[in-house]
Amino acid sequence: MLARSGHLEYDRVLFFSDAIFAIAITLLVIDIRVPGLKYPASELRAAEPHILSFGISFAVIGLFWMGHHSVFRYIAVLDRPVIAINLLFLGIVAFLPYPTSLLGGNGPDRVSAIFYAVCISCAGLTELAIWVYASRARDLLVPGTSPAVRRYIALRVARIPVVFLLSIPVALVSAQLASFFWIMVAVLGIALDRFGRPADEHNEEGETADPAG
């Protein structure tokens, strides 16, 4: 054990994580140029692919942050493997502005769409690894965390890498079709909340039953 919830060492990990998310999201906008005064309409049209890729990555990184928030509501103790896997996850998140820039370069093509999907999948699988490890390790989760909650959080985190991995063969046919396929992340999230949320799972405001009882 290196850190326990409520102590400075634990909070430093979460503060560092939030900072990486904030920096990654901020870097997404760098490729969007401010249109000049002479030909603003044409420059806006030229920037459309970058604006679209910014919107996609903003949503995806936002979902990663929400998943991270959900995971660490139940992880009460940190050990070295959790911190190491979390650091790897944050490294991939920090890298995401690069595939985003490629995706928005000239609109999505097969290579950029596949590379983007691979990068997002790696980030999602690493975030899932944090939860799987913490769920199986001894005394890392909040006492009383039910198997239903463990399964629900795993499914919510897993839906992002699953959708993006499945989109890779779709991108071989059409990069644009693959970008539409990514909407399935939101659809699966709504379905899980509708049909799979356990009664003892916290909502975002923490108003449901406490897993610790």
Gyration radius from CA atoms, angstroms: 19 Å
Any low-confidence stretches, pLDDT <50, length ≥5?
204-213
| SS strand fraction | under 5%
Major sheet, described briefly? Answer: 2 strands, antiparallel
Q: How many domains would you count in the coordinates? A: 1
Count of DSSP strands: 2
Strand order of the largest sheet: 1-2
**N-to-C order of helices and strands:** EHHEHHHHHH
* Morphology: globular
How far is it from the N-terminal to the C-terminal residue, by CA?
23 Å
Overall helicity? over 70%
User: Which structural class do the helices and strands define?
Assistant: mainly alpha
Structure summary:
By secondary structure, the chain is an all-alpha fold. It contains 8 helices and 2 strands.
